[in-house]
């Protein structure tokens, strides 16, 4: 079995990302438990999908288990029974339950996810489900429905992107998809303020640091996936000619292949390609490893969850977390504005304007 790019990068830099590795092991263990717990509940038309830190291989003892019963088939009165059975199996296994907004921990139908992209009917909940299906999801159990929905969503982004794979532009970037990734990132930032108000400040500090680290990484992985069509980050997938007759379908399959990697793996794949960015790689991954270390510490995590907003300037742990987030952001600026790899031009052209 091929070593992951993240482990290859760790070896090349001579680092030891203790918490990244331990979180991955915890994720795999929890996935195995969930798979055993829900075995036989799903079907060809239903998939049990996991999201969040568990899907990103960043699971810690304090993580919640975000899941969804994805339905790609005819409506059936038994679907509610399936949802309840899944809850009964998952709830005892998970220490924390999905958030109160109702985005996860229930059923979702493929029609809204696939057909409501943009417009008034594309609610925050629908956008969140769709983008997270692409960027941080996996399936426990049967995958037929999951794979059909993912590929159909990607078809919309590619086939309805006028000019993509049809013109002779210098860059072949899936604009439709990239813009939805950017829209979701901004939605997360706005929703942070909304949740701070509606939850009366409860948990604001832990959400703040996650927004600065894991949520930002999610957006980064989306950008790098879109940029890869021009830069070809992952040579394991071979060259891609977008203008061949079957180009659009090849693009869809390429996207699906890339999005099987976790956000950290996508970032590591990019960093592995550019040896001159090794100092940047150390900055980014060391900061992220320490961030996961803070989340792994139950006392620190609980402290940040209960921290009142007015105490942020004087709190040692929150200031430590902010320092890590600034280091992480500085590393991302170095990466995306690196003029030796064309990333700077792509970022300015598509990430800014």
In terms of topology, how is this protein built?
Elements: H1 5-13, H2 18-37, E1 46-50, H3 52-55, E2 67-71, H4 79-90, E3 106-109, H5 110-115, H6 124-135, E4 138-139, H7 144-159, H8 175-198, H9 204-231, H10 247-258, H11 263-273, H12 278-296, H13 298-306, H14 316-336, H15 343-352
Parallel strand pairs: 2-3
Antiparallel strand pairs: 1-2, 1-4
Helix pairs in contact: 1-11, 2-12, 6-8, 7-10, 8-9, 9-11, 9-13, 9-14, 12-14
Verbal overview:
The protein is mostly helical and 353 residues long. It has 2 domains: 15-160, 2-Layer Sandwich (Beta Polymerase, domain 2); 168-353, no CATH class. The chain has helices at 5-13, 18-37, 52-55, 79-90, 110-115, 124-135, 144-159, 175-198, 204-231, 247-258, 263-273, 278-296, 298-306, 316-336, 343-352; strands at residues 46-50, 67-71, 106-109, 138-139. Strands 3-2-1-4 form a 4-stranded mixed β-sheet. The radius of gyration is 20 Å and the shape is globular. The relative contact order is 0.12.
Short description:
The protein has 353 residues and is mostly helical. The chain has 15 helices and 4 strands. Helix content is 60%, strand content 5%.
Helix count from the secondary structure assignment = 15
The N- and C-terminal alpha carbons lie at a distance of: 41 Å
Low-confidence stretches: none
Gyration radius, in Å? 20 Å
Task: Specify the structural class.
Answer: mainly alpha
Q: What percent of residues are in strands?
A: under 5%
Question: Please, how many domains?
Answer: 2
How many E strands? Answer: 4
Q: What is the overall pLDDT average?
A: 90
The major beta sheet can be summarized as:
4 strands, mixed
**Fraction of residues in helix:** 55-70%
The largest sheet has its strands arranged as 3-2-1-4
